[in-house]
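tool=predict chain=A
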Amino acid sequence: MSLVLLHKLSLVELPVALTVGDDVDGLRILKMAGHVKAQIPPPIRTVAGYDQPPAVALEITPLGRRMLERFPLMPN
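tool=predict ok
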């Protein structure tokens, strides 16, 4: 999943805000792996649970670029 998100990020102009929960989680994994630089605010506790403010993918790192080259997406 995170690798697919990395490929999607490589196709758009950065920075870009991500608001969908799965995308934010994937961005968090990519950031921890050193594949992207990103700003991910912590979730905000609400009466109904938690709300995740948008996360921002700032750039793909050189390591992330190598991952894109090494693991291209396969056509369906």
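The longest helix spans residues 21-32. The longest strand covers residues 55-60.
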